[in-house]
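I hope you will forgive my troubling you with a question about protein structure. Here, with my thanks, is the record as I have it:
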Amino acid sequence: MTEGTAVTRLLPNICTDKMEETRDFYKELLGFVVGFEHQGWYIQMASPEKPELQIGIMRLDHEFTPRPFQYPAQGVIISVQVEDVEATYAAVKARGFELSHDLCDEEFGMRRFMVADPNGLLVNLFSFP
């Protein structure tokens, strides 16, 4: 850790022009609920069981983000560790999510699969047996 920096929270924010679709995706995929919305430009979602697990959704063109950075993200993978990747995989398939990467075992012990959110960001769902 950098001297003088004591991280107390990490909250990824997805900048998007698909606010509602993104909210609905994470609600359906992860069971997250809306904690609050701010004037149509920000939605904060959290796990109802573990409220410290959060994700933010921010309108792409809002003044909070400096203009040179108001572009859709690319090359982002949001990794989500779950207790039982087999059960999560079955539930995701039953709900009709399109898989971006099928269930597989990695040589380092991770079992995982991926889906893409409405913005093209990959969500890597995984567990370690």
About this structure: Residues 19-30 form the longest helix (12 residues).
